[in-house]
Amino acid sequence: MSNRPFNSVLTVLSALALAALCQTAGGKGDGVMRKVEGVTPHKQNFVVLDDHIWMHARRDLADLRLYAGDSEVPYALMIQRGSSSAQRGEATLLNMERVNGETQFVIEVSGLSECDQIQLKLEGIWDFVAQAHIEGLDSEMQEKGEDLGTSVLFDFTHEFLGSESILRFRPTKHRFLRVTLEKIAPEKIKGAVAVNSHIHNSAFTPDSGDLPITEDGSSTVLTWSDSKNEPVARVVLQIDPSETNFARGIQVLTPLGNTITNTSIRRIHIVRNGMLVESESVAIDLPNEVWVPFRIVIENAKDAPLKITSAKAYAYERRVYFDPIGSTALNLYYGYQMLSAPSYGYSEDFHADENAAIASLSTEMRSPEYRELPGPQRQSPQPQNH
C-alpha cells in the first residue's frame, strides 16, 4: 500500500497547524513584512521605525525580526532620547563696579572644567531689556580677554511674558569671566551660578494624527485618546504667526485629573530701546514617554484663545542598527505578540557609528509566510521561501 496519500494528509495538517499557530501568536492580526531599502553592504546601517510600526508591533518591539533571505540578521534597537547632564559650579562675583556708566564685574568659576552659562540672581528690578558682553580671562586683573559673545537679559513680568536672567555664551575653559552689563545697577546683582550644559538633543518621529483642539471656558484643551497604540514624548504646536508676545501656563493631565507635568509656552518679539528681544518655545515636552490618554490644558485666563492651527504628537525616534555583511535584500518582520525577545551578542556591546548608512522601510505588506515554528528551541519567526 502506498504511503503517498497518508503523507499528503500529514502535509495538509501541518500547514493548517502552522496557520493556526500563526493566528494565535498574532494578537493584532497577521504578521507584517516591510522591505529594507537602500541598504549599504559591508557597513553599519540603521533604519528609523515609523508610526506604522505601533499598529502591529508589541510596545517593547520585542517581536521585530530582521532577515536576509532565510538568515536572521542580529540588530540593536536604540532610542534617540536626549539627555541633559548640566553641571553646576560656584560663581564668585569680584570687582563689581561701574565703568563708563555700565556695570562691570568678574566672575570666578570653580568646580567646573568648562562652562557656557551663568545664571544671575537679580533682585528689585523689573521691566527691562539689557545686553551683556562676556569675555574669558586667564586672571582676575587681565585687561582684555577672549570675546565669548553677547547675551540679552529681559523682564516682562508686568506684561505677563516672563523673564530671562541667564547669560549664554560659547563654551569656555577660562576660570575667570568679565561681564559688562548695561541698565542693571551693581546692587541689583545678588549672586550667580555657573553652568556647564552638556545637552544632547533628542530625535523624534511623528505619531499618527493630530490632537483635537477644543475650547472649555477660558481654557484651550488638546486631547490624546487611547485609540492609538503609540507613545508620546512631545507635542508641538503650530500657532498662527499673527500671534505675538504671548505666554500661557499649561497643565498636562490624565483623564482622572492627575498631573503628568506642568509647563508653559511663549512667543516674544519685542523691540525696546532699539534692541530686539526674540524668544519662542511652543513645544510641550512630557516626562519620559506617555502611553496613556491625556489632556493638555492651556490656561488663557482673560486673554483670547491662541490661534492654534495644529498640535502634532511625536515619539522618541527608534533606530534599528544592523550589519548586512554583503546582503542588500533584507526584510523586517513584526506583528506577533507571543514571540520572545531576541538575544543577540551584536547588541550587548553595541556602539553606533556616527557615519552609519541610513536605509528606509517600504510600505507594509501582509506576511502569510511569516511563522513562529513550534518547539521551545525556536523563538524566532522563519520566513519561508515559495
Q: Any key phrases for this structure?
A:
386 residues; mainly beta; 50% strand; disordered N terminus
Task: Please outline the helices and strands.
Layout: H1 4-26, E1 32-37, E2 45-48, E3 65-68, E4 71-72, E5 75-79, E6 83-84, E7 87-99, E8 102-110, E9 115-122, E10 128-137, E11 146-155, E12 163-164, E13 166-172, E14 176-181, E15 189-196, E16 199-200, E17 204-210, E18 213-216, E19 219-224, E20 232-239, E21 246-253, E22 259-272, E23 275-281, E24 283-290, E25 294-299, E26 308-316, E27 318-322, E28 330-334, H2 345-348, E29 357-361, E30 365-366
Parallel strand pairs: 2-29
Antiparallel strand pairs: 1-28, 1-29, 1-30, 2-27, 3-4, 3-28, 5-27, 6-16, 7-8, 7-15, 8-14, 9-13, 9-15, 10-11, 10-14, 11-12, 17-26, 18-19, 19-25, 20-24, 20-26, 21-22, 21-25, 22-23
Strands, total number: 30
Mean pLDDT: 86
Query: In percent, how much strand structure appears in the residues?
Result: over 45%
Report Rg.
Answer: 29 Å
Number of helices: 2
The structure class reads mainly beta
Helical content, roughly? Answer: under 10%
Give a short account of the largest sheet: 9 strands, mixed
Measured distance between first and last alpha carbons:
31 Å
Q: Uncertain runs with pLDDT below 50, 5 residues or more?
A: 1-29, 371-381
Shape: flat
